[in-house]
Amino acid sequence: MTVPCRTEELMIHIIAGLMAEGPKGETRHIGCGVLSPIPGSAALLTRHKAAAAGKTIKVSIIGHGAEPYRTDGGVDIFDCAGQGRLDYFFLSGGQIDGEANVNLLGVGDYPGTTARWSGSFGSAYLYFMVPRVILFTLDHSRRTLVETVDFISAPGTSAENVYRPGGPFALITPRCLFMFDREAARFRLASIHPGESADSIREHTGFAYDAPDDVPVTEAPDAATLALLRGEVAADIAGAYPKFAHDVLGAA
Amino acid sequence: MQTTDAIAARIPDGAKLAVFKDRSCAMDVTRALVRRGVRDLHLVCVPTSGFQAELLIAGGCVATIETSGVSLGEIGPAPAFARAVKSGAIRIMDSTCPAIYAQLQAAEKGNPFAPLRGLIGSGILDTRPDYKLIQNPFAEDGRDDPIVALPALAPEIALFHAPFADEAGNVWIGRQPELKLMAHAAAETLVTVEDIRPGNMMEDETLAAAAIPAFYIAAIARAPRGAWPLPLPGHYADDEAALREYAAAAKTGDGLRAWLDANIHGAPASPAAAE
Question: ipTM for the complex?
Fold first, then answer.
């Protein structure tokens, strides 16, 4: 049985579902960068569900003050990625295009003459090294999901001679879930959230993508999952994102 | 034992200055630098910065910034940084976090460069002629295996705030190993601390593991709450209200000037300097 939930909670539930298994069997280690409360909550939900099944997943949330989520400073998470000790990571972007190129830097001629954002952070490394990078955005519009990014902070695909164990796995938005086909270098519409249609997704997406004839509706979380999310996960994510935990998940 | 103003006085115009993320930042010294009107700094952000770089840019102190990003975190974008980059008022050398760490590690070892995976196909590589593509000399069977070579990065000065130092001049950094990397890579390191403790932490195995030996430290000043309004991990959180007030004011040039007049130029000297 499913119950009504917020879009953020639906996104967290979907992401957690994607991470139930890892690229090589069981998921071992999930990393989350800064400004990522939805991925962070999804990582913790995955961890709590695995724990209920007697399995241990390590979650490293940059900016989380408490063990066991604290990393050994910034160097550690990149070294983990370089050695293949990280299964999942998350990236967002001011622009994301149809080949999964991510732009965190700005719009207009370099270095960002129309709009200048913060910068590329760790994306130009982690996108290559982490086997499954999940892209996320809270703005599913033609402004963000563009045909071609103005600046490539991190490329979605690479030439065959480039060492690249990692790359894009999925793209989650408030409207739908896309999965990424690395061979074709294209997104494929996997499910649409309640209230959306194949047409509304196309209307708000600036890049071309593949879609099946019948697109399934995204499965909402069940009551037990929502209770876990609004209880233990909310209390946990408050260590890194107190405002998000309170406003979105209803933590005290 | 020095004052924060004396620490700031050791940072000349044009210095290549390394600063750390958005915590453990020597903000009393940073305010003193803005008040003094230091010019043309080459800011090396390890590997990013927040309010510290934003304030130095807002104060007109920066000519070049080398960084993987500048933002005020959950507070939002860094307005003076964004304006200065857009207008070309400062030169930016965009990078990615592990590249800056690798460049500092090369400097700390005395190596000319460090290799790093990733980056190929990123626009960063196009904008950084000093990042060069080489062939992996150890590739199996002579396989084509390009990899990026990054030049060693040796700041002239590293500046940060730590929980405490001791009478022998050692500095305890806790769980922030990058501060040690900064001290190793820089020609000299300037530190402010919450407190100076008696004794020598190098004689204590537990403390010594998270300490930077006095050998690397050029000067130390005591500055209680010297990272304010940024956090000092394990000691105090950020002052979110103060940061939000800045972010709101700095949305316009006039608002920023008024904020600087009230909070930097017109403000009393730091508490530590007054002691």
Answer: 0.94
